[in-house]
Each structure stands twice: as structure tokens, then as C-alpha cells.
What we know:
alpha+beta, 8 helices
Amino acid sequence: MSTGITTTPRTTSFVASRSTPRTDPIRTGPVTTVTADAVVAPVTRRAARAADKAQAKAAASRHSMKRTVASVGALTLVAGLLGTMALPAFAHTPGDSDSSSASTAAVNAVRANGSQSVSVASGVKNASLSRDGYTTTVPVAPVVQTTTTTTATTLSTTETAASTAQRASFAASTAYTGKTAADYLASPSHPAFSLAAVYQTALQYQGTPYVFGGATPSGFDCSGFVMYVYAQYGISLAHSVPAQSAAGTIISEADAEPGDVVVLNNGSHDGFYAGNGMILDAPKPGGVVSVRPLWTTDVHFVRFGIK
């Protein structure tokens, strides 16, 4: 039965395609897949290595240049210093006459002369002195000879006599008509003596005003007060602080009792010891006889009437 379709044998077509000669090269080795990165990568690494070498070379060149500049600078500085020190020496001429040479010559002249001289007005009495090559003329001060003919003892006696006379004159001028110290001493009998009795008698005169030279109840000074009280017990004392101190026996403060006499070491004042660091005395102008604290420790204690 006929269908109207022409059939071409496959064998004919196969033979025709196989019969066309091949122009590709024949690969004899194994087939390997090649990519674009595989081709470019080797070229990029070589370029990087070359760039690194170039940078290292440039850095070395810069470092060498810096060292060279530093060396040149150091050499220049050293040369400048040497020139500064050396040039003045080369420039100085030993034969030059300048101010320093003149000064040296002046000093040498003074050394060679080696002397000094000083003079004073011709009207002054002079004496020449010499020592170690130096001479000078100096005024001689006149020596004044003094002779001391008055001793301390004589002065003390003179002062005591003057004070006694002054006090006696004052006592004579007062209106007091009672007994004086001399009257008590002239009496044939006296109260029994004890320090306690003396102190009680002295207390009776509290409130009596201080009067310089006073030795009666109308007015007392310090030694007049002591003299007047002790005279009532037949003990004669001078109207003087130093004389009263010398007339008694010096005792320690620990042994002192009320009725003993306390005396300032400078001889300026005395009074009755009242015990416990107190004194009963005629103090000073404007004051009155009273008991008060001792104001100093520069004192000593004197006892009368008891051997």
C-alpha cells in the first residue's frame, strides 16, 4: 500500500556526516577544565611580588638618605664648635696692647711695690707701726689712769649712815609721842621671847601706812617695822635691810616660822615671814602694813633671838 512519504535511508545520512574531514587537533592527553581565574591568577601574583620589591627598595633608599642627612648635620655642628673655639686663639696676636694687658701691668706693678701707706692730720699725736713690710701711721689714744679709793664696804657704810640719819630726822619731825624702839630697848624688862609672840605683836600694826624712814606706829617703812617690833622684846636691830640680814642667822625656808624675817636677796626689802609663802610687811608708798603673798623666790630667811 502506498502512503506518499519518501523515506531516506539513515545509513546514507550517517555516512555522509562521517565522511566530512575533522579539522580540530586531536587531544592525546587527559581532558582538563580550564577557567578564566586559572589564567589570570599567576599574572596577578607576579605583579604583587614585583610591587613589594619595589616598595622595599624605596623604603631602604629613604632610610639611607635620612642617615646621610643626620651624619652631615652632626659633622656640620662639630665643625662649627671647633671653629668657634679655635678662631679666637688664631685671631689673637700675643703682641697686641689691649686693656687686659694694661690691667695685668698694673697688678704686676702693685705686686712689685708691695707696700701701702696711710696718713692722718699732722696735729694728731702719731706712733709708727710696722709689720710684714706694711707701714702705717695711727693715732695713739691717751691712757687715762683711774684710781678707785672707795670700796663696796665703804659705799655700803656711807649709804647706811645717810639712810639712818634721814630716818632719824623723819622720826624727830613726827607728832608721835608714844614709845620708840629706843624706849623699848631701854626698858629693864621685856615680854618672854618667842617667834609666835613676835608675830602676834607685828599683826597689831596692820593698817599702819607706809612712810619712808618711819619707825613708829605713825608710819613704818619695811626695816623700821621689823626694828620696832623686835625692840619690844629687847632685841636691838639697825634701821637697814642689809644690816638686819647680817645681824641674824640664815635658816632654810623649810625651817622658817611666822616671826622670822624674810629678806630679798638684793637687799631692797624685808618683812616678817607669815608662813605658807606669805609675808607681813610695810610694802611701799601708798600701801599699809598687811599680810600678802611673796612675789618672788629670790629671798632668804633670817632668825633673831634664838641661837
